[in-house]
Amino acid sequence: MIRTITAADTYPLRHQVLWPEQPLDFVKVPEDEAGYHYGYFIENELVSVISLFIDTKHHARFRKFATHPNYQKKGIGTALLQAVFEEAVLQKATQIWCDARLEAAPFYQRFGMYQEGVIFYKGPIPYVKMLKML
Question: pLDDT tens, 10-66?
């Protein structure tokens, strides 16, 4: 089940999945309080999170998309990402993008997203910008 949650609700899973070697504050973003945050729950356990931000140009960006390792490759992330795309359309966004870990780029391509620009790094991890027009 997908529900709206608070930014603070996302932090433990963001930290555990994305940057466990960093302090908890590392997974917070300055825009968190202005974002839309969603969680996927199984029997009241939060197993996946994603945050959506929409700027004044009607460009949507999702960030800090994380699914607990025990629940990956079960369609949970797919459902959550589709819900975020739908919300972006409801909010009148004209495009949606993310900074994706390079290893996850094929996942986003399945949703019609394409790579824009060159590979860049956040620490030792290669990333690429992925974009989709809505």
Answer: 999 999 999 999 999 999 999 999 999 999 999 999 999 999 999 999 999 999 999
Question: In angstroms, how far apart are the furthest CA atoms of the chain?
Answer: 41
**CB-based contacts of 17, cutoff 8 Å, min separation 6:** 66, 67, 68, 69
The answer for residues whose C-beta is within 8 angstroms of residue 75's C-beta and 6 or more apart is none
Closest CA to 52 of 69, 34, 35: 35
Q: Which three-class secondary structure state does DSSP give residue 29?
A: coil
- Threshold 0.85, pTM exceeds: yes
Q: What is the DSSP letter of 15?
A: H
How many Cβ atoms from other residues are within 10 Å of residue 35's Cβ?
20
